[in-house]
Amino acid sequence: MYKSRILMYMRAITPVHVGVGRGYGVHVDLPVQRDEFGFPSVWSSSLKGAVKSWFRDVDRCLGPDPGKLEAEEVKQSSISFTDAKLVLVPVRVVSGVYTYVTSPHLLEGLMSYLHVVGVQEELPDKELQELAEKLNSGVALVTNERVLYNGKLLINELDVRAEREGGLIEKLKMSKLLPQEILERVMSKGLVLVPDSGNLSLTVVNRSMLIQYRVRLNRTTKTVEEGPWSEEYIPAETVLASLVLCTDRRIKTSGGEEVSCFDVFKREVDGKVMFVGGKETIGRGLVKLYLYSQTG
Protein backbone atom coordinates (compact mmCIF):
# COMPACT_ATOMS: atom_id res chain seq x y z
CA MET A 1 0.00 0.00 0.00
CA TYR A 2 2.72 2.47 1.00
CA LYS A 3 5.07 2.22 -1.97
CA SER A 4 7.36 5.20 -1.28
CA ARG A 5 9.46 5.55 1.85
CA ILE A 6 11.66 8.32 3.14
CA LEU A 7 13.38 9.27 6.39
CA MET A 8 12.61 12.66 7.92
CA TYR A 9 15.11 14.20 10.33
CA MET A 10 13.89 16.86 12.72
CA ARG A 11 16.30 19.33 14.38
CA ALA A 12 15.03 21.42 17.27
CA ILE A 13 15.72 25.12 16.70
CA THR A 14 14.10 26.07 20.02
CA PRO A 15 13.22 23.87 23.01
CA VAL A 16 10.34 21.54 22.20
CA HIS A 17 7.42 20.50 24.40
CA VAL A 18 5.28 17.75 22.91
CA GLY A 19 3.48 16.73 26.05
CA VAL A 20 1.34 13.94 27.44
CA GLY A 21 -0.73 16.08 29.78
CA ARG A 22 -0.27 16.57 33.47
CA GLY A 23 1.92 13.88 34.96
CA TYR A 24 1.34 11.96 38.14
CA GLY A 25 4.09 10.55 40.31
CA VAL A 26 6.83 12.04 38.12
CA HIS A 27 9.43 14.75 38.68
CA VAL A 28 7.68 17.30 36.48
CA ASP A 29 4.06 18.42 36.14
CA LEU A 30 3.99 18.47 32.33
CA PRO A 31 6.43 15.85 30.92
CA VAL A 32 7.31 15.32 27.26
CA GLN A 33 6.39 12.25 25.25
CA ARG A 34 8.72 9.27 25.57
CA ASP A 35 9.20 5.94 23.83
CA GLU A 36 8.85 2.50 25.39
CA PHE A 37 12.43 2.69 26.71
CA GLY A 38 12.03 6.07 28.39
CA PHE A 39 13.81 8.21 25.79
CA PRO A 40 12.16 11.48 24.69
CA SER A 41 10.31 11.17 21.38
CA VAL A 42 7.57 12.77 19.31
CA TRP A 43 4.65 10.43 18.76
CA SER A 44 3.41 9.98 15.21
CA SER A 45 -0.02 11.50 15.96
CA SER A 46 1.58 14.74 17.15
CA LEU A 47 3.94 14.81 14.18
CA LYS A 48 1.15 14.21 11.66
CA GLY A 49 -0.99 16.92 13.24
CA ALA A 50 1.83 19.46 13.00
CA VAL A 51 2.53 18.63 9.33
CA LYS A 52 -1.18 18.78 8.55
CA SER A 53 -1.42 22.27 10.07
CA TRP A 54 1.68 23.72 8.43
CA PHE A 55 1.80 22.44 4.87
CA ARG A 56 -1.26 23.24 2.77
CA ASP A 57 -0.86 20.82 -0.11
CA VAL A 58 0.43 18.00 2.12
CA ASP A 59 -2.77 18.44 4.15
CA ARG A 60 -4.70 17.23 1.07
CA CYS A 61 -2.90 13.88 1.38
CA LEU A 62 -3.51 13.38 5.10
CA GLY A 63 -7.20 12.51 5.13
CA PRO A 64 -10.19 14.48 6.44
CA ASP A 65 -10.35 16.30 9.73
CA PRO A 66 -12.39 14.75 12.55
CA GLY A 67 -16.11 15.33 11.94
CA LYS A 68 -15.65 15.67 8.18
CA LEU A 69 -15.17 12.01 7.30
CA GLU A 70 -18.55 11.56 5.59
CA ALA A 71 -18.16 14.70 3.49
CA GLU A 72 -14.79 13.74 2.04
CA GLU A 73 -14.25 11.42 -0.90
CA VAL A 74 -10.93 10.15 0.46
CA LYS A 75 -11.43 8.51 3.85
CA GLN A 76 -7.84 7.58 4.65
CA SER A 77 -4.50 9.34 4.85
CA SER A 78 -2.12 8.65 1.97
CA ILE A 79 0.89 9.39 4.17
CA SER A 80 1.86 7.45 7.28
CA PHE A 81 4.27 8.62 9.98
CA THR A 82 6.16 6.67 12.62
CA ASP A 83 7.20 8.07 15.98
CA ALA A 84 10.19 10.41 15.78
CA LYS A 85 13.03 8.66 17.63
CA LEU A 86 15.90 10.38 19.37
CA VAL A 87 19.19 10.30 17.42
CA LEU A 88 21.42 13.04 18.88
CA VAL A 89 21.08 15.18 21.98
CA PRO A 90 23.23 18.16 23.01
CA VAL A 91 24.98 17.85 26.37
CA ARG A 92 26.81 20.40 28.48
CA VAL A 93 30.61 20.21 28.50
CA VAL A 94 33.29 22.24 30.28
CA SER A 95 34.96 23.31 27.03
CA GLY A 96 32.94 24.44 24.02
CA VAL A 97 29.53 24.88 25.71
CA TYR A 98 28.01 21.68 24.31
CA THR A 99 28.68 18.58 22.28
CA TYR A 100 26.43 15.90 20.79
CA VAL A 101 25.76 12.53 22.39
CA THR A 102 24.38 9.32 20.96
CA SER A 103 24.54 5.65 21.93
CA PRO A 104 24.38 2.22 20.27
CA HIS A 105 20.72 1.92 21.25
CA LEU A 106 19.81 5.25 19.64
CA LEU A 107 21.75 4.44 16.48
CA GLU A 108 20.13 1.02 16.22
CA GLY A 109 16.74 2.74 16.29
CA LEU A 110 17.84 5.00 13.44
CA MET A 111 19.15 2.04 11.45
CA SER A 112 15.85 0.18 11.84
CA TYR A 113 14.17 3.08 10.02
CA LEU A 114 16.91 3.20 7.37
CA HIS A 115 16.44 -0.49 6.65
CA VAL A 116 12.80 0.24 5.84
CA VAL A 117 13.84 3.10 3.54
CA GLY A 118 16.03 0.62 1.67
CA VAL A 119 19.46 1.76 2.81
CA GLN A 120 21.71 -1.25 3.33
CA GLU A 121 25.38 -0.84 2.41
CA GLU A 122 25.64 2.60 4.03
CA LEU A 123 24.69 1.33 7.50
CA PRO A 124 27.46 0.97 10.11
CA ASP A 125 26.30 -2.46 11.33
CA LYS A 126 29.74 -4.07 11.68
CA GLU A 127 31.44 -0.87 12.78
CA LEU A 128 28.83 -0.18 15.44
CA GLN A 129 29.20 -3.69 16.82
CA GLU A 130 32.98 -3.25 17.10
CA LEU A 131 32.56 0.11 18.83
CA ALA A 132 29.94 -1.34 21.19
CA GLU A 133 32.47 -3.91 22.33
CA LYS A 134 34.79 -1.07 23.35
CA LEU A 135 31.95 0.53 25.27
CA ASN A 136 31.29 -2.62 27.32
CA SER A 137 33.94 -1.53 29.81
CA GLY A 138 31.96 1.63 30.54
CA VAL A 139 34.26 3.95 28.58
CA ALA A 140 32.69 6.56 26.29
CA LEU A 141 34.28 7.36 22.93
CA VAL A 142 34.85 10.96 21.78
CA THR A 143 35.76 12.45 18.41
CA ASN A 144 38.33 14.85 19.79
CA GLU A 145 39.95 15.78 23.07
CA ARG A 146 38.41 19.25 23.12
CA VAL A 147 35.47 17.94 25.12
CA LEU A 148 37.76 16.41 27.74
CA TYR A 149 38.83 18.23 30.91
CA ASN A 150 42.08 17.04 32.47
CA GLY A 151 41.64 13.82 30.55
CA LYS A 152 38.09 13.26 31.79
CA LEU A 153 34.72 13.64 30.12
CA LEU A 154 32.39 15.90 32.11
CA ILE A 155 28.95 15.94 30.49
CA ASN A 156 25.81 17.22 32.20
CA GLU A 157 27.71 17.25 35.50
CA LEU A 158 28.56 13.56 35.14
CA ASP A 159 32.16 12.30 35.32
CA VAL A 160 32.50 9.65 32.61
CA ARG A 161 35.58 7.69 31.65
CA ALA A 162 36.37 8.37 28.01
CA GLU A 163 38.97 7.96 25.31
CA ARG A 164 39.44 9.46 21.89
CA GLU A 165 38.34 7.29 18.97
CA GLY A 166 39.93 8.42 15.72
CA GLY A 167 37.52 8.64 12.82
CA LEU A 168 34.47 8.01 15.00
CA ILE A 169 32.11 9.98 12.75
CA GLU A 170 33.40 8.10 9.69
CA LYS A 171 33.09 4.72 11.42
CA LEU A 172 29.47 5.51 12.23
CA LYS A 173 29.05 6.57 8.57
CA MET A 174 27.37 9.79 9.63
CA SER A 175 28.77 11.60 6.61
CA LYS A 176 26.44 9.40 4.53
CA LEU A 177 23.49 9.17 6.90
CA LEU A 178 23.07 12.71 8.22
CA PRO A 179 21.85 15.77 6.30
CA GLN A 180 24.75 18.07 5.48
CA GLU A 181 23.65 20.88 7.78
CA ILE A 182 23.35 18.57 10.78
CA LEU A 183 26.62 16.82 9.90
CA GLU A 184 28.47 20.15 9.87
CA ARG A 185 27.18 20.91 13.37
CA VAL A 186 28.28 17.51 14.62
CA MET A 187 31.72 17.97 13.06
CA SER A 188 32.02 21.39 14.68
CA LYS A 189 30.75 20.55 18.16
CA GLY A 190 32.05 17.01 18.40
CA LEU A 191 30.39 13.69 19.12
CA VAL A 192 30.36 11.40 22.14
CA LEU A 193 29.27 7.76 21.89
CA VAL A 194 28.22 6.71 25.39
CA PRO A 195 27.55 3.18 26.63
CA ASP A 196 24.00 1.96 27.19
CA SER A 197 25.19 -0.21 30.09
CA GLY A 198 24.08 0.90 33.52
CA ASN A 199 21.46 3.10 31.82
CA LEU A 200 24.21 5.67 31.29
CA SER A 201 22.81 6.82 27.93
CA LEU A 202 19.33 7.37 29.39
CA THR A 203 20.80 9.16 32.41
CA VAL A 204 22.79 11.51 30.19
CA VAL A 205 19.73 12.21 28.02
CA ASN A 206 17.48 12.88 31.01
CA ARG A 207 20.01 15.37 32.37
CA SER A 208 19.83 17.26 29.08
CA MET A 209 16.09 17.85 29.37
CA LEU A 210 15.04 21.37 30.35
CA ILE A 211 12.73 21.93 33.29
CA GLN A 212 11.10 25.36 33.39
CA TYR A 213 8.70 26.77 35.96
CA ARG A 214 5.84 29.02 34.96
CA VAL A 215 3.05 30.97 36.63
CA ARG A 216 -0.11 32.64 35.36
CA LEU A 217 -0.67 36.22 36.52
CA ASN A 218 -3.90 38.03 37.22
CA ARG A 219 -3.93 40.84 34.65
CA THR A 220 -5.51 43.30 37.05
CA THR A 221 -3.56 42.72 40.23
CA LYS A 222 -0.36 41.39 38.60
CA THR A 223 -0.24 38.68 41.25
CA VAL A 224 0.05 34.94 40.75
CA GLU A 225 -3.31 33.48 39.81
CA GLU A 226 -2.10 29.95 39.08
CA GLY A 227 1.13 28.09 39.63
CA PRO A 228 3.96 27.61 39.74
CA TRP A 229 3.98 24.48 37.61
CA SER A 230 6.88 22.76 35.87
CA GLU A 231 7.22 21.95 32.15
CA GLU A 232 9.72 19.62 30.50
CA TYR A 233 11.38 20.47 27.17
CA ILE A 234 13.58 18.65 24.69
CA PRO A 235 16.56 21.02 24.30
CA ALA A 236 17.39 23.02 21.19
CA GLU A 237 19.73 21.25 18.73
CA THR A 238 18.28 17.83 19.54
CA VAL A 239 17.95 15.62 16.44
CA LEU A 240 15.17 13.07 15.96
CA ALA A 241 14.13 10.92 13.00
CA SER A 242 10.78 9.64 11.74
CA LEU A 243 9.87 7.26 8.94
CA VAL A 244 7.41 8.58 6.35
CA LEU A 245 5.54 6.20 4.02
CA CYS A 246 3.37 7.30 1.07
CA THR A 247 0.89 5.65 -1.29
CA ASP A 248 0.91 6.32 -5.03
CA ARG A 249 -2.16 8.56 -4.81
CA ARG A 250 -2.08 11.75 -6.89
CA ILE A 251 -3.75 15.04 -5.96
CA LYS A 252 -4.33 18.45 -7.42
CA THR A 253 -2.30 21.06 -5.60
CA SER A 254 -3.54 24.53 -4.72
CA GLY A 255 -1.94 25.67 -7.98
CA GLY A 256 -3.89 23.14 -10.06
CA GLU A 257 -0.94 20.83 -10.71
CA GLU A 258 -1.52 17.06 -10.50
CA VAL A 259 1.30 15.32 -8.65
CA SER A 260 1.84 12.36 -6.33
CA CYS A 261 1.53 12.82 -2.58
CA PHE A 262 5.13 11.64 -2.24
CA ASP A 263 6.40 14.40 -4.54
CA VAL A 264 4.19 16.98 -2.80
CA PHE A 265 5.59 15.94 0.57
CA LYS A 266 9.21 16.16 -0.58
CA ARG A 267 8.69 19.52 -2.26
CA GLU A 268 6.82 21.17 0.62
CA VAL A 269 8.64 19.72 3.63
CA ASP A 270 12.36 19.33 2.87
CA GLY A 271 14.38 22.12 4.45
CA LYS A 272 11.30 23.84 5.88
CA VAL A 273 10.47 24.77 9.47
CA MET A 274 7.31 24.21 11.50
CA PHE A 275 6.09 24.23 15.07
CA VAL A 276 5.36 20.93 16.77
CA GLY A 277 3.79 20.44 20.18
CA GLY A 278 2.54 23.20 22.43
CA LYS A 279 3.83 26.59 23.63
CA GLU A 280 4.45 27.97 20.14
CA THR A 281 3.23 31.45 21.16
CA ILE A 282 6.22 31.67 23.49
CA GLY A 283 8.63 30.40 20.85
CA ARG A 284 8.74 26.76 21.82
CA GLY A 285 8.59 23.86 19.39
CA LEU A 286 10.23 25.36 16.30
CA VAL A 287 11.94 22.59 14.30
CA LYS A 288 13.62 22.24 10.91
CA LEU A 289 12.88 19.23 8.71
CA TYR A 290 15.31 17.35 6.46
CA LEU A 291 14.42 14.46 4.15
CA TYR A 292 16.77 11.55 3.47
CA SER A 293 16.37 8.71 0.99
CA GLN A 294 18.72 6.18 -0.58
CA THR A 295 19.04 8.42 -3.60
CA GLY A 296 19.57 11.51 -1.40
Quick description:
This protein is of the alpha+beta class and 296 residues long. The protein contains 9 helices and 17 strands.
Fold and architecture overview:
- The chain is α+β, with helices and mostly antiparallel strands and 296 residues long.
- The protein is 26% helix and 29% strand.
- The chain has 2 domains: 1-18 and 44-82 and 234-296, Elongation Factor Tu (Ef-tu), domain 3; 86-208, no CATH class.
- It has 9 helices and 17 strands.
- Strands 1, 2, 3, 4, 5, 9, 10, 13, 16 and 17 form a 10-stranded mixed sheet that branches. The chain has a 3-stranded antiparallel sheet with strand order 6-7-8, with no helix packed on it.
- It starts with a strand and ends with a strand.
SSE blueprint:
Elements: E1 4-12, H1 44-54, H2 56-59, E2 79-81, E3 85-92, E4 98-102, H3 104-117, H4 125-135, E5 140-142, E6 148-149, E7 152-155, E8 158-160, E9 162-164, H5 168-171, H6 174-177, H7 180-189, E10 191-193, H8 200-208, E11 210-217, E12 224-233, E13 239-246, E14 250-252, E15 258-260, H9 261-269, E16 273-275, E17 286-292
